[in-house]
Specification:
The complex is a heterodimer. Chain A is of the alpha/beta class. Chain A has 11 helices and 8 strands. The chains are: A alpha/beta, B alpha/beta.
């Protein structure tokens, strides 16, 4: 009689799997001592992916540093919804710099800690995609290049949401925003533009680069934990759906984030010293339509004459990711 | 007796229909033939937080949003708590029956409206709350709702069910005003003049730029200037221009200067924090003599400040910001209509004098909706750049010292397009040159070319007495409130007038001296902390002035200014 390997699909979650793990391996959010660093009562919209992602990231970083952590925050939704009195939500030293300079300000904080021999206090910098890929990009590149001891986390909701949903350098092609209206021959954001910052970080030789989404929160926490084991510049890029800007139902935030990965449009991987060292493979492949359809920002792709061609190009991009990162687990980097 | 104008304030939680109610009411009032002006405050948060939308409408042209509220509509308790003290002595209140408790002393002039209940019953969701509220307001002021129904039908042309539900909610709301119905009856508007349009300050600027021949716009989202970028993203390509969204403000103004160097009329728009980032390029623009137009919709500062509130605190930055001394022009439009004309002026000055021109508006003016006469552009005069193609084949000097200090500007690809353009101090040919004589000659030339702007070439605004005893000097968006206050004070016999320099740099010192020749008191109302215009007038004119500065993030009202005037009238 053969033996069958027992598989605990929910290992690490709140449910059954936690009982079977060492306390140190359990999800941070299941830890009664968790920091709740972004505490409840803040003013994010219903279904905000960024609020969810930031809570998991900061709590994980706090546990990894035994509570010795400073957060530097760029201007953006996260800063705006978490700070107004009396709903101020941060439970750690937290510095709002300006829009484009969080990486440089974090560099300064880390340098001061080193100069004062307090290197046990670690530095986390965070911003949205606008503050990261656009206005803050120069400072971010400098921080990478100097290998400053900062973990920079980009919460990517693919646009400037708190100023009224304008395009950013991370807005995907075809998406409608206030500055890429669904008008003209090629409605929505143009193809062939935008920045892939995780790969740009890898090109800097950054020690630890990872991508994650709010669909796999244990993976997100684990990546923060691994990032905090490393000294020097680190970069984490988290896809966080935005119901307001994407025109998606608030209840579908996690599902849409999962579809982004299952279609191949958002590859989830880890890289060390510029080389991909691990990918999260796609468990249930899905065509890009399944991801795009619930989002009103893509609605014109399903009615405009140019829609089919645009959908085909988006599918091509997804297929390219699947090949490049071996997302179907059939070769490629693993 | 019917009123000539009413002030309506809608207040509640951002996201529950306050802003949309105000917008509907404003558009309907404009279509119904009334003059209107609006003012709104909203939180900087994405959703939630207290917001307020004030609409003033009347049969005569309206210059300010009004201080005392005739009709207060409270969507929640906080709205009452925040706004009850703005009620006029005979002001009335409509409130959501489930959400608000009104103190007994106000009960006689307050009526509950079943906003949630009716919205759910008729519209099937809370979304129709705004229509119930607008209906109730229309009832109180006896406003014929036909234009509202037309707007609804147009907006939901393809969704008959939604349109019907909205109209039913509107009519049901009308009955909710109960015995207050008609209590604030507004005089019937005269025949609608065909040439009236409803615009915000930002829209007027974007339209003015297109009228002036804008070919290239680059910008970066920032409250409260983003609508200019959004509007031009959609519209400028339709008239053959190009709009790009850059990665930050430094890139925006740099792209603008690149485009201008290559011969296109170019503009960017931002707010204070963005202007800070652009400052180095303003100096470059002034020194390399490359024209550009920069819109600064000021917001509360300093630093990130009050992103959704109004302030006039970038004046000194606009005039002097940056290292060294590079020339620039600063214009402050005074009304929504003037935003249109001032933008055209900005391009004219910029192109003719080859300088950066900064146009200072503020959150109040940028987001204010105002009914204006449609600008008549049939006699529009556009000043074009002095180019080098006409110079001929001889020796071309990009920075030639000329009679009027304006040098012909070469355009790459055209005759005489080959020269060195640089922000390093340069000689007439553009070659870097550091001699004392050259630096003096070039600084003199760069500043002297702006001298005509100190003359009658520029239209400033004067309201009231030409040489009053009580002289008010202001700039920008405060004009409407000050104008109304001056009219009221004159009606009481005061010798009073207001002077509004539309160009603040170069400063019209002679015109101010003329205006203040008989003044016993010179008062400077402005929305900032340190009294920047007062300091400017003292410095430029050597006058003793009284600063009346406030920085609460809110615009002046006519009543505020009237108090300031009447306190100074000799008894």
């Amino acid at each position: 009689m053969g033996t069958q390997e027992i598989r605990y699909f929910q290992v690490g979650s709140h449910a059954v799997g936690n009982r079977l793990l060492d306390p140190g391996q359990r999800t941070v959010q299941s830890d009664p001592e968790r920091a709740n660093a972004l505490t409840c009562g803040h003013r994010a919209c219903q279904g905000c992916g960024e609020a969810l992602g930031a809570r998991y990231v900061v709590d994980a970083a706090l546990r990894a540093t035994a509570g010795r952590l400073v957060a530097v925050n760029a201007t953006g939704c996260l800063e705006v919804f978490s700070t107004p009195y009396p709903e101020t939500s941060w439970q750690l030293p937290w510095l709002h710099s300006l829009f484009g300079n969080a990486p440089a300000v974090a560099t300064g904080v880390a340098a001061a800690l080193r100069a004062q021999g307090r290197e046990d206090v670690r530095v986390l910098a965070q911003g949205g995609d606008g503050g990261t890929v656009d206005i803050g990009f120069g400072c971010l590149s400098g921080m990478f290049e100097r290998d400053d001891d900062v973990l920079y986390v980009c919460y990517d909701n693919q646009g400037y949401m708190n100023t009224g949903v304008q395009r950013s350098g991370a807005t995907p092609p075809g998406a409608r925003t206030a500055t890429t209206e669904a008008v003209g021959d090629a409605p929505g954001a143009p193809f062939g533009q935008g920045k892939d910052v995780p790969r740009i970080a890898m090109a800097h030789g950054v020690r630890y680069v990872a991508t994650a989404t709010v669909a796999d929160l244990r993976d997100l926490e684990a990546k923060v934990e691994r990032a905090m084991e490393v000294r020097g510049a680190r970069y984490l890029h988290v896809l966080v759906p935005c119901p307001l800007g994407w025109g998606s139902p608030a209840a579908l935030t996690v599902r849409i984030a999962r579809l982004a990965t299952q279609t191949g449009l958002f590859p989830v991987y880890e890289a060390r010293d510029g080389e991909v060292t691990g990918v999260t493979t796609i468990r249930r492949p899905a065509p890009v339509e399944e991801y795009l359809r619930p989002q009103k920002r893509f609605a014109h792709l399903f009615s405009h004459p140019s829609g089919p061609a645009a959908l085909a190009r988006i599918q091509e991009a997804a297929d390219r990711n699947i090949r490049r990162y071996g997302l179907l687990g059939d070769g490629g980097p693993s | 007796m019917a009123r000539k104008s009413v002030v309506i304030r809608l207040a509640g939680e951002s996201g529950e229909g306050v802003i949309s109610s105000g917008d509907i009411l404003t558009q309907a009032a404009a279509r119904g033939g009334y003059w209107t002006q609006t003012f709104r405050t909203y939180p900087a948060e994405i959703k939630g937080g207290p917001c307020m939308y004030q609409v003033r409408m009347g049969e005569d042209q309206i210059y300010s949003h009004g201080k005392w509220v005739d009709l207060l509509v409270c969507f929640n308790q906080e709205a009452w708590d925040l706004h009850w003290d703005s009620l006029a002595s005979d002001g009335v209140i409509l409130y959501d029956e489930t959400a608000v408790e009104i103190p007994d002393e106000y009960a006689p002039r307050a009526r509950p409206v079943r906003m949630e209940k009716l919205a759910k019953e008729i519209g099937g969701s809370l979304r129709a709350k705004n229509m119930v509220a607008v209906g109730a307001v229309s009832g109180v002021i006896s406003f014929d709702t036909t234009p509202i129904e037309e707007l609804v039908l147009r907006r939901y042309a393809h969704k008959q069910g939604v349109a019907d539900a909205n109209i039913a909610a509107l009519r049901a709301g009308g009955d909710e005003s109960g015995d207050l119905k008609g209590s604030l009856e507004i005089t019937k508007a005269v025949e609608v003049e065909a040439d009236r349009i409803l615009l915000s300050g930002n829209q007027a600027i974007a339209a003015g730029a297109v009228a002036a021949g804008l070919e290239f716009f680059a910008g970066y989202p920032i409250t409260p200037a983003s609508d200019i970028l959004e509007w031009l993203s959609a519209k400028l390509p339709q008239v053959g221009g190009i709009t790009i969204q850059c990665e930050d403000e430094i890139a925006s103004i740099s792209a603008v200067l690149g485009a201008s160097y290559a011969g296109a009329k170019s503009m960017t728009a931002t707010s204070g924090p963005g202007l800070s980032l652009m400052t180095e390029m303003l100096g470059y623009s002034g020194t390399a003599e490359i024209p550009c137009v920069v819109i600064d919709a000021q917001r509360g500062g300093p630093s990130t400040g009050l992103p959704t509130k109004t302030e006039q605190s970038d004046l000194q930055h606009a005039l002097y910001g940056g290292h060294g001394e590079a020339p620039r022009v600063v214009i402050a439009p005074i009304t929504v209509e003037d935003c249109f004309w001032a933008t055209i002026d900005a391009f004219n000055y910029s192109e003719r004098y080859q300088v950066p021109v900064i146009l200072l508006t503020d959150q109040g003016l940028a987001t204010r909706m105002e009914v204006i006469h449609k600008p008549d552009t049939s006699d529009l005069e556009l000043w074009e750049r002095k180019t080098a193609a006409s110079v001929g084949d001889g020796e071309y000097k990009r920075y030639e010292l000329t009679q009027d200090s304006i040098s012909p500007m070469g355009i790459p690809g055209e005759l005489n397009g080959r020269y060195v353009s640089t922000g390093i101090e340069h000689d007439e040919l553009g070659h870097p040159a550091y001699t004392p004589e050259n630096h003096v000659a070039m600084q003199t030339k760069r500043w002297a070319k702006l001298d005509p702007l100190k003359t009658d070439l520029v239209r400033h605004e004067l309201y009231g007495d030409e040489q009053p005893e009580i002289a008010l000097i202001g700039f920008g968006s405060t004009y409407g409130a000050v104008r109304e206050a001056v009219a009221l004070a004159k009606a009481e016999g005061a010798s009073v007038g207001a002077f509004y320099p539309r160009v603040l740099g170069p400063f019209p010192a002679d015109q101010v001296a003329h205006f203040t020749a008989n003044a016993k008191r010179i008062v400077i109302p402005e929305v900032n902390f340190t009294g920047q215009l007062a300091r400017l007038v003292r410095g430029e004119c050597g006058l003793q002035v009284e600063s009346h500065a406030k920085c609460d993030g809110l615009p002046f009202t006519a009543d505020d200014v009237l108090d300031v005037i009447m306190e100074r009238v000799p008894s």
